[in-house]
Amino acid sequence: MNFNGTHIKTLRQRLGWSVAEMARRMGCNTKLIQAWEKEAAKPDPEALNQLRYLQNHVESYSEQIAQKPIVEKEMEERHVAQLTHRDLLKDIQ
After folding, report:
1. Residue 26 has pLDDT above 90, yes or no
2. CB of 12 within 8 A of CB of 3?
């Protein structure tokens, strides 16, 4: 898959990550993520591999998420009234 700016931004949003969080997890800076999303720069081969991995992860879990919102499921399992985004991302780390 070719990742244009829209694809990268959509992927980041589906992961629930801010620009800063994506940059931290990918080992780069926020300006680079912003440049990719604005198509002012293209990801290098290593970054493309990371993006493909993240895209595969999102696609593999999308069916589960569609069946029951992940937030509701996690809240029920933990018996809590609210969650942070870090609670939801534990399986990606």
Report:
1. yes
2. no
Summarize pLDDT for 48-72 with one digit per residue, the tens. 999 999 999 888 877 655 555 566 6
Cα–Cα dist 82/85, whole Å: 10
Q: Give me the half-sphere count of Cα atoms (radius 13 Å) on the Cβ side of residue 27.
A: 6
Q: How confident is the model at residue 35 (pLDDT cuts 50, 70, 90)?
A: very high
**Which residues, other chains included, contact 9 with Cβ-Cβ below 8 Å and sequence gap of 6+?**
37
